Amino acid sequence: MIKDWFYDKLKENIGELRYEHSLRVMEKSVELAKIYNVSVEKAAVAGLLHDCGKLKGGINLLKLAEDFDIILDSMTKNNHELIHSVLGAAIAEKEYGIVDEDVLNAIRFHTTGRENMSKLEKIVYIADMIEPGRSFEGVDDIRKLALVDLDKALILSIDNTLKFVIEKRKLIHLDSVKARNQLLIQKSME
Amino acid sequence: MIKDWFYDKLKENIGELRYEHSLRVMEKSVELAKIYNVSVEKAAVAGLLHDCGKLKGGINLLKLAEDFDIILDSMTKNNHELIHSVLGAAIAEKEYGIVDEDVLNAIRFHTTGRENMSKLEKIVYIADMIEPGRSFEGVDDIRKLALVDLDKALILSIDNTLKFVIEKRKLIHLDSVKARNQLLIQKSME
Q1: Is ipTM beyond 0.90?
Q2: Sign of the CA dihedral A58, A63, A68, A72?
Q3: Among residues A155, A156, A163, which one has the least CA distance to residue A181?
Q4: pLDDT tens for residues B80-89?
């Protein structure tokens, strides 16, 4: 699924630092895919391309999203952090030729999460949070948990996102809260 | 609006400690009502009765809510903390004879908040958070802010609730997030 030219194009589009982060997310996604019996190929490409919408050089993501005929909800429209995921799914499809819906969704929802996430979506969300370059209080707990319980690791990952967003006084996407609530309810019934 | 017998009935129903907390919330609500030009009488009764649904003695709040023909959303149904507010509004109406919708809503939404809160609803939510018996990191900041900017104090109060709920691994009510998002958007446009 990954073509050789993906690497050069991605580095050119998102810059060296984000590219290196993407490689680490790819590796971590592959590691988790093996544990949870998910296609390694899909995990690799979704991990590699998850930030392909974070275009460098001051490009107007909102304008670009409009050019791609992407309909954004009002919250996403006002949040650079959220636009890049939705835009990324469109770029992965149109510029990298990705057609697998699960891969595209893993890119689209890697920032907010959502209800009923697939295993691949969960893996990329978590891998993005715990790749070796990340450091925040509690990250090692999530790293360990990710190897044994994907859903618990996802709850902790979402919690981390929520705490970050609260501290930064940014809007909280309802999809993140819905994802977390659903996981907590499922866990409480196990 | 407050009848003399409210005090004895409330103390009897919710217990000494919660009763004393209620008196402090009443006082704080009155203080804020004066600052923000809200009816002192409404603030007093809403503050006093805000926890009138927290019945002591192991009463089944869910069962009682059903007896009152209260329709609970699925999240509230599973959360004792949330039931007491909705139940409290029904008790305030049926047992204390409160008819003022704004007072009833201040009781009903003092735990979750919601979009488009009235000034009275904001006051009771905040008063409950900052009455002198409360101590948590940052409470003094909210106390000071409450005297000069009701909405900013409310955002911080909701943030505190969300952080608490996240730490406790409890479900986050979407109404709290919607309330916070709306306030942040309004503040950003001022």
Answers
A1: no
A2: positive
A3: A155
A4: 778 999 999 9
Distance CA A55, CA A18 (A): 10
pLDDT digits (tens, 9 = 90+) for B131-174: 999 999 999 999 999 999 999 999 999 999 999 999 999 999 99
Q: How distant is the Cα of A97 from the closest Cα of chain B, in angstroms?
A: 36
Nearest to B171 among A159, A163, A184 (CB): A184
* A181·B163 Cβ contact <8 A: no
Give the number of A-B residue pairs with CB atoms closer than 8 Å.
37
pTM (two decimals): 0.91
Where are the domains positioned within chain A?
Answer: 4-189
| DSSP string computed for B62-116 | HHHHHHTT----HHHHT-HHHHHHHHHHHHHHHTS----HHHHHHHHTTTT--TT
Interface contact flag, B163 A159, Cβ < 8 Å: no
- B159: contact with A, CB 8 A cutoff: yes
CATH of domain B4-189: 1.10.3210.10
| Residues of chain A numbered 44-73 and touching chain B (CB < 8 Å) | none
Locate the chain B residue with the closest alpha carbon to A166: B159
